[in-house]
Design goal:
- There is one protein chain.
- The chain is an alpha+beta fold.
- It has a single domain, classed as PK beta-barrel domain-like (M1 Pyruvate Kinase, Domain 3, Beta Barrel), CATH 2.40.33.20.
- The chain contains four helices and 13 strands.
- The strands form three sheets. It has a seven-stranded mixed beta barrel with strand order 1-6-5-11-8-7-13. The chain has a three-stranded antiparallel sheet with strand order 4-3-12, with no helix packed on it.
- It is globular and about 35 Å long.
- InterPro entries: MoCF_Sase_C (IPR005302), MOSC_domain (IPR052716), Pyrv_Knase-like_insert_dom_sf (IPR011037).
- This is MOSC domain-containing protein.
């Protein structure tokens, strides 16, 4: 399963949306250089308030741009970076990856997928009704999260729109993604 990076985004402030950039630099064990969520320990405000010593399993947030087309069909205009992701991809079933899947981005960067983004009410603050589009329930009543995946940086490097994305699955048995 291979794809392409379609946008990269970062913001030094703890804002909901992140502006698009020409490139970002990933730092091993840290995240996106200069981004508010970069760090070896948790950086998301709610998690810092609970326990600032937790490891940061949410260093880099990725969303497949295919979600934007689905949201558009439901009446919501969303562009890359607006849901707070750092990397927007095309052609990779991010939500179908198992825990520990490796994503190679561009010439050097390597990410390890840690879990699903757990969307919060800020999504409805951005566009009322959007939260229900990215969090739903399946036929069995289980919660389905569609707002992207979170990862940690194993090997740093630059990432730009147009860079290839290569997926490597971990040895089985595979564990499905859960919220992190």
């Amino acid at each position: 399963m291979n794809g392409i990076v379609t946008a990269v985004s970062s913001d030094p402030e703890h804002a909901f949306s992140k502006p698009n950039r020409d490139r970002i630099t990933l730092l091993a064990g840290i995240g996106v250089d200069g981004d508010a969520h970069a760090g070896a320990r948790v950086q998301h405000r709610s998690r810092v308030a609970r326990d600032p010593s937790q490891p940061n399993l949410r260093q880099v947030h990725l969303i497949g741009e295919e979600l934007f087309a689905e949201l558009d069909a439901a009446g919501f205009a969303v562009a890359p970076g607006e849901l707070g992701e750092n990397v927007t991809t095309r052609g990779v079933d991010l939500l179908g990856l198992p825990v520990g899947a490796v994503l190679r981005l561009g010439p050097a960067a390597v990410l390890e997928v840690t879990g699903l983004r757990n969307p919060c009410r800020q999504i409805d603050d951005f566009q009322p009704g959007l939260l229900k589009q990215v969090v739903d329930r399946d036929a069995a009543g289980d919660v389905v999260r569609r707002a992207g995946v979170m990862s940690i940086v194993r090997v740093g490097g630059p990432v730009r729109p147009g860079d290839p994305v290569t997926v490597e699955l971990p040895a089985g048995p595979h564990r499905p993604l859960e919220r992190v």
